[in-house]
Fold each of these.
Amino acid sequence: CNDKVIKPIVNMKRILLFLTALGLINTSDLLAQNTEKPSRWEIGVDALSLIDQNELPPYSLFGRFLLNPEGKKQIHLRTRIGFERFNLLDSSFWFGSIGLDYRITSFFASLGIQKEIMAFPKGALYVGGDIGFSRAEDVKEWTDAGTTGREGFENFTETKWRLSGILGYTHQLGRNFAISLESSLQGTNTKQNWDKDYINFVVIGPEPEIVNEQKSIETWNTKVQPFYQLLLTYRF
């Protein structure tokens, strides 16, 4: 019975302490805003790509630089660089060799600009645009036909140019942190290439299947992304 009474009291004290600390942070922020110039640098990560909720590489860094610290409507230069690499080598299987090496790599870089259109005490609504380039490669190599049924390789590459119009809102959290949610209208040019050269022994018939194929596809596409980026950033 005592635990049922004590635990809610302890939880309530923790909540009150958290709210008190949050109130002190906000109060100090209001005082600081009257004496300090706005931070010019901002750096952070995209929470959506970390949980695979958009097309951008998860391991990337986003940055903004304030171009007009004395201006009424802030203008930022913005950039993002990302990279991802995944290797699943034949030697990584604890139960023994399976004769397969599998590698995925991707790279992304973008540059853009944004401008405030409406400012609030703790946030701002802004518009902007980015131009981005990405390249991804997916390589499979089969080295042991006895375990995989194949011998040879398959290589897939994709390059993409992306032009994005952006509508976003940023909200200040504490003195130096901020969260920003962005939507975008995108136009993309995508080039995909396949290069296959392998022998497939798992077939019905007396002879194995020999696959030797090269193919390329280029596409243009436009789409609206309601949740383009969810940025968690640090200002300094």
Amino acid sequence: MSFFYRTASKLPLSLPWRAASLLGHDKKEDSATIEFLTSIFSRYFPNTPKPLLLEWAKRHMQLLAVERMDTYAMRRIGSLNGVSLAIEGDELLIDARRDSSGVILIFNHYDRILTGAIALAKRGFKINSLRLELNEDTSIPSDIRLFLSAKINKFDSIVGGISLGRRESMRRLYKGLEGGEMWCILADAWDSAATERKPYRFLGTDIYLSSGLERIALRTGAKLIHVASYTESASFIRVRLTRLYDPKNAIQDAITILSADVSKNPWAWWNWGIIDSLRIPPMQLSN
């Protein structure tokens, strides 16, 4: 499918994303994923009719294809010859930076994840990010790891910052936030090696996530902004900023927003494949 994406990415206006949504699928691979997603959806939304569960699964695959096209045509996101971006709440970010404080931009694995940061970069903000160590995650096939690494590198070049691996020294991050930088951190990231994971309420159950984001915010005094993207059409994405004020509850506040979003659009969350792992308490995981 890579040939299709490379070729379609050269189409004008929003046509690359429209083509991806319609044609960017491998029917054989999709069928297994759709069956899996339908089963998962039925567990968390038990009163939903099966045809609707199936529709959600298919919409997930369409969004996945569009997300892949984002990688191939990333520089056209937010341009006249690509996908339009609109930001709600950008005054919150401007206000948070009035005293030159550092800012933590909190994301979840929801919808078009990178487009929120790209929208802010288009406004002139330089953005850094904390990421998982892709090279160490053997659960991800090598070709996918290479694809994701290339995606991160392209993203970094657009937003003007750096990506720091979670196994690398955090001194760079702490120093940056204390010096007024902006850093992206994913609240719902799965990190089996995290030494401290806490329960957070999500869709009526507990998921266990690293609490590192909260410690970073408390230590640096950085302001907290939740960022979420919502795909409204092939040619338009709405980015919503929400100010979070309590570092001790920052992750739960972000997950509460995520839970509401996923309840509304279940197909737009990327972590369904690891939700069972997210629900395992740390003590059980280590045994």
Amino acid sequence: MDTSAPRFNSAKIQKAVEAATRNFAKADVARNQISDDIRTLESYLQSSAVEIEFRFRLGSPILSSIPHESCAPGELHEEFLSWSANAGGQFRLTYELGKFEDHEVLAEVGDNSLWEVPSGYCEARPLIETPFEVRHRLYPALSEFIDALAEALSVEDEPDEKTSLPS
């Protein structure tokens, strides 16, 4: 792929295009690195025989108060990274977006809320198959996802004195 900037008559346009060309090249490298890391992580988890359904909430639920391209007013959104089996039984690293209507806040607990959600649905697809914007936005959360998954699978090496059986 030719990444050199074309020649322009305007020096101002030429300078802008040359700067943009460098950024385009960096973005392409970053896109490839992020996608490679996601594929490698998924492959690693599959080869490690991690076969436990696991969902990791990304931030707090978002309540839309105004119409937006991806949600209606009053719609509640929750995002998750999950490690779950697809219809064929193969575990995949998955992005889930829950969209719920007609919610009611049951209680406020610190920054968290308990929600009653009578209707809604969840869109799920392998993370690597999501648009790059989604992968790019969620990429920093992958290390937190791995830490939480490892914690969910952790087993104590030795029982502590309180739980050990008498000899």
